[in-house]
Amino acid sequence: MRIFDPHIHMTSRTTDDYERMAAAGVRAIVEPAFWLGQPRTGPASFTDYFDALIGWEPFRASQFGIRHHATIALNPKEANDPRCRPVLDLLPRYLAKDGVVAVGEIGYDSMTAAEDEAFAAQLALAVEHELPALVHTPHRDKARGTERSIAVVAESGIVPSRVVLDHLNELTVAAALDAGLWAGFSIYPDTKMSPSRMVKILHEYGLERVLVNSAADWGRSDPLLTVRTAEEMLAGGFTKDDVDKVLWRNPVAFFSQSGRLDLADRNDSEATFAGNSILRGGS
């Protein structure tokens, strides 16, 4: 079994997680830029964060043979903070980087006017840089937020098949697929989507244009819930080829639209990054 997790925040996870993921079949991941849990105080902290997403994290992942890519954006929550808005001017520098395969996470948190502006501006950057877009649907009032997101995407002129609406559920999947977008689902221990619910959605809506991720971050989450979903699919009557399509070929197809997806085997276990390894303390 090979797994591609198309949305996971490894900056928040430990090296032990990388080890467990590799042992379970996770071979590739995409890490979207997101909110760190407390407000950033200015653009400089984003610069350091973005640098880590395209430098240190790919190095950490490579120690276990996992290919790491990133998406870069001003996230919806911090789009409301005037201190963070200048980050929009920094984005073109990072959207040109080889390891960046989409603009994201963008979209809505509270559906404010400031979020409207940042969402539209970053969809325009996706079009300009010929990149896909990863759109965060809000955790509150998800149905209205999904409908509004679809409208903004349509207004932007971006090709619908280059956009994934993430964190969907049973109430929002049909609207995303009917609009020609990709449908993303985050599998969580207590919230969002469970493996069993995901399997029911796959039975009802099929396997096309569907991405399944763990969205594991600093909260209660599990980077192996993609693997648990694969197991649930097999138990629910899907074939191994079906599992490979949803959990490998689909994310490859979506992010390949960037022209930057690199899935060549790589294991830099003997290498260092800026003179450092992931080992601490020595033998």
UniProtKB/TrEMBL annotation:
Sequence intervals crossing the membrane: none
Keywords from the UniProt entry: Hydrolase, Metal-binding
Molecular function terms from GO: hydrolase activity, acting on ester bonds; metal ion binding
A family per Pfam: TatD_DNase
Keyword field contains Calcium: no
Family: Belongs to the metallo-dependent hydrolases superfamily.
Entry protein name: TatD DNase family protein
Species the sequence originates in: Actinoplanes lutulentus
